[in-house]
Protein: DUF222 domain-containing protein
Amino acid sequence: MSLDVPAALLERAEAGRVDDEEFVDCVRRSLPYAWAVVAEVSARVHSTTADYADHAVPPPSEVERGQLLRALASDAIRGGLERHFGVRLAFQNCHRVAAFRPGAVGGSTYRSFVSPLAQVRNQSPELRDC
Structure:
C-alpha cells in the first residue's frame, strides 16, 4: 500500500471532496522518508539561486527506498509534492532526487539532468537492482 489513508479522508474521497492540503498531509504521514528528502532538496533550492538541488544518498533500508519510489512513481503524489513545495521534481536511479525551480524547467540544466545521457552516466553495478 502506498498511503495510510485515515477513514475520514477516505470517506471524503468517496464523496469527491479531498483537497491538496489533506492529500499532501496524508503523504507526509505515510511516506516520511520520501517527504524528508523532498522537503530537504526543496528547501535547499529555495535558499539559493541555483537551478536545482539534489539528494544522491542511497536510502538506509529497503523500507525507505520503497517510500521514495512510491512517492516519485505516482503522478498524484509527485504532483502534490511539487505543488506543495513549489518545485519540479526529477528522479534518477533509485535514490537521486532533484528539486528544480519552476523557471529552470525546460532550460539546459534541467534538460541535461533528465536526459538519457545523464541516466546512463548515473548507473552503477551496485544500484542495478535497487
Q: What stands out?
A: The chain is about 55% helix and 10% strand. Residues 48 and 101 are 10 Å apart (CA to CA). The radius of gyration is 15 Å.
